[in-house]
Amino acid sequence: MAEHKQGSMDTRNHEKTFDGFIRMSTWGAIISIGVLVFMALANA
């Protein structure tokens, strides 16, 4: 079994994927809120 050295793993790909996930989640929430506001105004 290979020895594990604390802090030696390259996490650039993980961080890039996480940043993309956060960005898409934020845009999804903004779009959902926008749609709900539009529906509320259209029904008034």
Low-confidence parts: none
Strand content: under 5%
Helix/sheet category: mainly alpha
According to DSSP, the number of beta strands is: 0
Mean pLDDT score: 92
Termini Cα gap: 66 Å
Oligomer: single chain
Give me the number of helical elements. Answer: 1
Shape: rod-shaped
Largest sheet, strands/sense/barrel: none
- Helix-strand pattern: H
- Write down the Rg: 20 Å
Helical coverage, percent range: over 70%
Summarize the structure.
With 44 residues, the chain is mainly α.
What can you tell me about this protein's structure?
It is built from one helix and no strands. By secondary structure, it is mainly α. It is rod-shaped and about 65 Å long.
Overview features:
mainly alpha, 44 residues, single chain, rod-shaped, 73% helix
Present the secondary structure layout:
Elements: H1 12-43
